[in-house]
Amino acid sequence: MVTNCNFPDTGNMEILHQYATPEQRERWLRPLFDGDIRSCFALTEPEVASSDPTGIKTTAVRDGHDWIINGHKWFISNAVGAQLCIVMARTDPEAEPHLRGTMFLVPMDATGLEIVRRVPIFGHAGGPGHAELRFHDVRVGGDAVLAQPGAGFLLAQDRLGPGRIHHCMRSVGWAERAQEYAVDRAGTRPHRDGVLAQSQLVREMLARNRIDIDAARLLVLRAAHAIDTAGKHHAYREISIAKVHAARTTQKVVDRAIQIYGALGLSDDVPLTRFWTMSRALRIGDGADEVHLMTVAKHELRRRGYDRAR
Fold first, then answer.
1. Which pTM does this prediction carry?
2. Which residues contact 260 (CB under 8 A, 6 or more apart)?
3. Largest CB tally within 10 Å, which of 216, 227, 242, 276?
């Protein structure tokens, strides 16, 4: 957040840069770039499986030149304190599934937009939160549409691909920081006649952490390279591999660090539990592990010519 590369601001800035009108950029993108405001992204809903955005229930109905939004969202990261909410709503229920949704740029102080609560995550509900939102006849103008009506699914895919890489980068950072904590603890914590680092078991945990972190970092770099050279639409295999591996790796690395710390590692006096919580959440956020594993498997089958394998 301090360096203005926090989620979901990074992903929101990317799609605003790519799709917003000059007026929308001036109103929303410039302040986001400058770090003067924050934003959130409202896609996930409690009533449907939001890993498939085509099934969302939130609606936006035309009323003259305006749109009226009604719906229910949750796990909306950083909604508390944000000024902009990019909302996915269903605008044409009769269209093809991938053409039913539209994204809207909604001010957080819009009449009818209610922050119900911060959804507690493993007992924590502080900070900008992962909020539950309700939209009660929220009225926005036609100039609030991002790109065009029906383009919501395309925008969501454009946003989520690079956004997953951002999450992978953060995951590697959390893992690296957890390793620093583990090494410092092992090197200074008294144990029998020496310190924890003299234990072969502890040294093995530190070594496994280093191997796992470096492997994750290389997979993330490969995915970023694929985006740079082939484009984000042709890098989904590499993105999915990195996304699954980085989140799972960070969980393992942090878990070992907690084990080395002992009881202190379970407390909030050190940030390890926070790292673990965030990495565990990323195994669901921006596409559950299982969704990405299916993507990787599909590419593997296609590589060998089994395009229609059941």
1. 0.85
2. 182, 185, 186, 196, 202, 205, 206
3. 242
From 59, 208, 187, 65, select the one nearest 134 (Cα to Cα): 59
pLDDT in tens, 23-57: 999 999 999 999 999 999 999 999 987 767 778 99
Name residue, tokens 């951002």: 166
State the sign of the Cα–Cα–Cα–Cα dihedral 259, 264, 266, 271.
negative
The first and second tokens of residue 67, run together, are 């749109």
pLDDT digits (tens, 9 = 90+) for 159-210: 877 788 888 999 999 999 999 999 999 999 999 889 999 999 999 999 999 9
**Which of 4, 28, 14, 36 lies closest to 161 in space, CA to CA?**
14
Q: Are strands 101-107 and 84-90 parallel, antiparallel or unpaired?
A: antiparallel
